[in-house]
Design brief:
Blueprint lengths: L1 H19 L1 E8 L10 E8 L2 E9 L6 E6 L7 E6 L2 E6 L5 E7 L2 E6 L3 H21 L8 H20 L6 H24 L12 H9 L13 H16 L10 H4 L3 H13 L6 H8 L6 H16 L10 E3 L5 E3 L7 E7 L4 H16 L5 E7 L4 H11 L4 E4 L5 H5 L7 E5 L5 E3 L8 H8 L3
Parallel strand pairs: 1-7, 11-12, 12-13
Antiparallel strand pairs: 1-4, 2-3, 2-5, 5-6, 7-8, 9-10, 11-14, 14-15
Helix pairs in contact: 2-3, 2-4, 3-4, 4-6, 8-10, 9-10
Organism: Chitinophaga defluvii
Protein name: TlpA disulfide reductase family protein
Keywords: Cytochrome c-type biogenesis, Disulfide bond, Redox-active center, Signal
């Protein structure tokens, strides 16, 4: 009897504790895509012109349902829920239970819908016809003329709705009056970023033509949006390549389009950190002049160093790691010889698949001025040591524990990675051909 009472008491206390927390539940459906895992969504926060995932939320396989408890740090602020390419805003307070049914460009807010979420719910009712173009496969089956009419017809309802937002939460009201029109702009850009276009400018929706001709990226608040970075990039892309039918690299245009100095620098840094460029060294050289704050200048110095490392003929950054006996080898120890660095791991199947070709390559250069340096990123030293000894792997094997200059300065984020240095320690290839390709042997021979 006592056990039963105790169990019931514990369940009651647990229920009370759960009730005091904010929760989101519901369903989220997305058409299958090759770029997004449709089995999970995220709770995001906006940061530095993009989004930072806070919580990964699995979707049930049978009905795409989910439930998540929201941390206290994510209450009383705007957060975003969904897939990386399809998000919806939410605002929760302690004790709120919000039910969302979302996907394919639309959403309904149910459960305990506070004043802030009512704004988002009504907003999405207005813009759903527009969002259907980008978030469903059937969107492009509709004519371009139909899209133009849809977009222009929503402008006045959108503006009228934003003008009367008044929840009593002054901070929230002020921000969403800025945010929602930019959400509308981003949704308007979606079809054009996916290939929609018109033969003549006169055919473009009036809203789009006005937006492309007047957007100067002067408002620094753009960088507080969860899509600030993609909005800038998407607008410039559509303006120059779709609307104006221009050619050239997008990276060469960006800096001149952003009129707010600090936001321009933030965008340039973000582009470099995301590695979205054709020629990183040239991009750094042309755009480092735009850094404004000390922090931005310091970030650019780091990126400039990395950019130069990737260019053929660039000076190498020395790195040092121990072999299995503890003897430390530096890259600079091998000056006067060509060095092929193989960054690998025992758990990496493509790495192991290249091993026979790597050993054959090494044997073909026996006696030549070349060193084959294999650096493991394993974090289990015994496992690495055992494989090297058991398989009697050739070459000089070093252990990095996935740390140090080779990993950080050379930005090794995936393996296998082959890096080739010449006899003077300069970069020949930052991401060399794999040993299984005969062209690697030809490249090495040209440097011996």
């Amino acid at each position: 009897m006592k056990k039963t009472v105790l169990s019931m008491l514990m369940l009651a206390l647990s229920a009370i504790g759960w009730a005091q927390q904010a929760t989101i539940n519901g369903k989220f459906i997305k058409e299958n895509t090759s770029t997004v895992n449709t089995g999970q969504i995220y709770l995001f926060k906006a940061e530095n012109g993009g989004m930072v995932p806070l919580t990964m939320i699995p979707l049930a396989r049978h009905d795409h349902s989910f439930q998540v408890q929201v941390a206290d740090s994510d209450l009383n602020v705007i957060r975003y829920i969904g897939f990386p390419d399809e998000i919806y805003p939410v605002y929760l307070r302690k004790g709120d239970t919000l039910t969302l049914n979302a996907g394919l460009g639309e959403i309904t807010y149910g459960g305990k819908v506070n004043a802030e979420n009512k704004v988002f719910a009504e907003w999405n009712k207005i813009v759903t016809p527009l969002r259907k173009y980008s978030y469903t496969k059937d969107g492009f089956k509709r004519s371009a003329d139909y899209f133009a009419g849809t977009l222009d017809s929503l402008v006045k309802p959108m503006e009228a709705f934003v003008n009367v937002i008044k929840t009593g939460n002054a901070k929230f009201d002020s921000y969403v009056k800025f945010m929602l029109p930019y959400c509308f702009r981003k949704d308007a850009l979606g079809p054009f970023n996916m290939g929609l276009g018109y033969a003549e400018r006169e055919q473009y929706p009036a809203f789009m033509s006005n937006m492309l001709n007047t957007e100067k990226f002067s408002n620094p608040q753009i960088w507080t949006l969860p899509f600030g970075y993609s909005y800038i990039q998407g607008t410039i892309f559509v303006k120059h390549y779709i609307y104006n039918h221009e050619n050239g690299f997008l990276e060469d245009i960006i800096a001149t389009e952003i009129t707010n100095p600090k936001m321009r620098a933030d965008y340039i840094l973000s582009l470099l950190e995301r590695q979205e460029y054709q020629n990183m060294a040239a991009f750094v050289k042309n755009n480092k002049q735009y850094m404004v704050t000390t922090q931005q200048k310091n970030r650019m110095k780091i990126l400039e160093k990395r950019a130069n490392l990737k260019e053929p003929g660039a000076e190498s950054v020395d790195f040092a790691y121990p072999d299995m006996n503890g003897k430390v080898y530096h890259l600079k120890d091998f000056r006067g010889k060509v060095v092929l660095v193989d960054v690998w791991a025992t758990w990496c199947k493509p790495c192991l698949a290249e091993q026979p070709a790597l050993e054959a390559l090494e044997k073909s250069f026996e006696g030549a001025d070349i060193v084959f340096l294999s650096v493991s990123i394993d974090t289990e030293k015994d496992k690495w040591k055992n494989m090297v000894e058991t398989k009697k792997l050739s070459g000089l094997h070093l252990y990095s524990n996935n740390q140090g200059s080779l990993i950080q300065d050379y930005e090794v984020t995936e393996v296998p990675r082959f890096i080739l240095f010449d006899k003077n320690g300069k970069i020949v290839s930052y991401d060399a051909i794999r040993p299984s390709d005969p062209k690697l042997k030809e490249l090495i021979q040209s440097k011996i």
